[in-house]
């Protein structure tokens, strides 16, 4: 009898543990992710081989349950973020994921542009329309458009930038209707939407349909380049993408036998920008055996990614070199002057 009672108690306890693991708190938890070699991910047509490696670094980010929250309080280099710090106002989980994938795609385009221009190869763009990032609740687009829809016509006419789209919609009067042509899941659809004034105080003078959007464009280059990122989101791999692409475009191998990790956004002008989770990315690179870590310097700011990376490297006792970079050209100059690994 006592044994049966004990089994019941254990079962109840197990059910409680399982159920509580699915109860999410209003926080996100981040921790060190991985350092992943870029050569298998990026393929420039007839590109050059390299002796070493360029690696992107990641953090693992997820919604907090009771256990992950408590572990983050106890374990070094696990960070807790309020949900509003990670997601935009009224942004759903699906919209957040779509935004992260779009940021990754934008970073790929910028990386290709920077690398090809540095290599002296011309680039061209093809404009495809606007890409819906999110839909504002209680506005006309709600229930008609979804995140990831690609709008390419208004009232049967094509437009050539997001600025043109916004200008057209903003010129409407409240109550006027427009016909949008859009693509969803490889199918072409049409929808009529009535313009309205925004309901929030900040935008109440503006007319719109209630979507957040960005340009949807693709880069046209020769030789062709493929960047396979699967489900990796966010813009922080852009800088390392640009180095790998450039290295495959040029005969001289910048890796010189080293395993080189790093992080940072990349702008079309070659500026390397600040990212989140730099401490965790340093740990990911060290765990993968990287020799060098390239970190955004932010023009020498006291609280820069570079300074945080140096502190983390000292704390974990790594022999990995932390190198500050402000621009793509900074990184190229450093790597060109690097002595080959013995």
Automatic annotation (TrEMBL):
Residue ranges annotated for the Lon proteolytic domain, each copy included: 231-338
Domain of life the protein comes from: Bacteria
InterPro entries xref list: Lon_proteolytic, Lon_Prtase, PDZ, PDZ_sf, Ribosomal_Su5_D2-typ_SF, Ribsml_uS5_D2-typ_fold_subgr
Record keyword Ion transport present: no
Pfam families: Lon_C, PDZ_2
Keywords carried by this UniProt record: Hydrolase, Protease, Serine protease
Keyword Kinase carried by entry: no
Record SUPFAM superfamilies: PDZ domain-like (SSF50156), Ribosomal protein S5 domain 2-like (SSF54211)
Residue ranges annotated for the PDZ domain, each copy included: 111-179
Active site: 236, 281
Gene Ontology BP terms: protein catabolic process; proteolysis
EC number, as in UniProt: 3.4.21.53
Protein family: Belongs to the peptidase S16 family.
Name of the protein: endopeptidase La
Organism field: Niallia endozanthoxylica
